[in-house]
Amino acid sequence: MRFSKLRLTGFKSFVDPTDLLIADGLTGVVGPNGCGKSNLLEALRWVMGENRPTTMRGSGMEDVIFAGASSRPARNFAEVSLQIDNTERLAPAGFNDSDSLDIVRRITRDVGSAYKVNAKDVRARDVQMLFADASTGAHSPALVSQGQIGELIRAKPKARRRILEEAAGISGLYQRRHEAELK
Ligand code: ATP
Ligand code: MG
């Protein structure tokens, strides 16, 4: 699956709708400290179903909503949409009948998160599974945050195994087994 566009609205410092086009090859994002480069990576994790506030460098889930600046009031919701080129039909079963996938996550204050795939309401789990089966996702080793290299080097064997399992695309199977055992 190839990511082709990321759109942020009211997410962290991106108060107005902002598109990041992801072309073939390497895309670099450069800018001064604090301009929002890491926020873009967090938006990508978030739209794929990230639910740990610490990974999002906040203390609560609603901390991703634009909190206001001297000249702009705070927003009531944050939305990230991720467009995926699926012309090669590499999406997992159930999501594989169109040329592009549009995944949207929106969080509204005091309401919580809602997800859509191609304008259809889905559960968080559906989105998380979609990416887990495609060997990517919020916990993917392909997303390396600032400071994470050091973490990887210091990881205990069990934690390192999790990273390898995520890379092998089998973490979705563990999740399903865990849910089956609970039933
Ligand atoms: P560096 O080069 O230092 O790593 P960066 O480009 O990665 O910087 P980010 O960490 O992405 O920068 O952006 C930080 C900015 O985002 C800060 O100015 C912070 O105030 C702003 N920010 C984070 N969360 C919110 C929020 N909820 N509302 C408004 N602004 C926010
Ligand atoms: Mg940064």
Automatic annotation (TrEMBL):
ATP binds at P32, N33, G34, C35, G36, K37, S38, N39. It is found in: Cytoplasm. Belongs to the SMC family. Required for chromosome condensation and partitioning. Contains large globular domains required for ATP hydrolysis at each terminus and a third globular domain forming a flexible hinge near the middle of the molecule. These domains are separated by coiled-coil structures. Homodimer. This is Chromosome partition protein Smc. It comes from Sedimentitalea nanhaiensis. The chain holds residues 1 to 183 of 1151 of the full protein.
